[in-house]
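subagent[fold] <- orchestrator: predict structure for attached chain, return tokens only, no commentary.
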Amino acid sequence: MINNDLLRRISTIFDLTDETILTTFALTQCEISAEQLTNFFKEKDDAAYQPLEDVQFASFLNGLIIAKRGPSEGPEREVEQELTNNMIFNKVKIALSLKAEDVIATLELADLSLGKYELSAFFRKVNNKHYKNCSDEVLSAFLKGLKIKSK
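subagent[fold] -> orchestrator:
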């Protein structure tokens, strides 16, 4: 999925203002200007459109975790340079402190039924033999379920 679209969807789900989004980026020392943020939200065919890089989106998601759960103990986490759907899914799940049952219920709101075992495969380490790539459809269904839940 496109990071810009995901940022747009997440900001809608959590009803985030531009100021809140900029603050969330800043929680991980990622400085985004108001103009850059505006360009992230433009349509792809707009001349001012600016793609949201993986490292920037990872910073936002890490900032979202800090904003929702508070800073963690110990050294600051290093920001990922590349993101996968699995990582995005996991970061949003962590930010909201969701357990497997909560995620399954959220997916069911979007008419997607997964068992605990199928779900856990998305959150395993990449080199685990039971690891499974999270498809755009699953991530989209999770975000759709969160949107329905937030109403």
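orchestrator: received. Logging for downstream: The radius of gyration is 15 Å. The mean pLDDT is 95.
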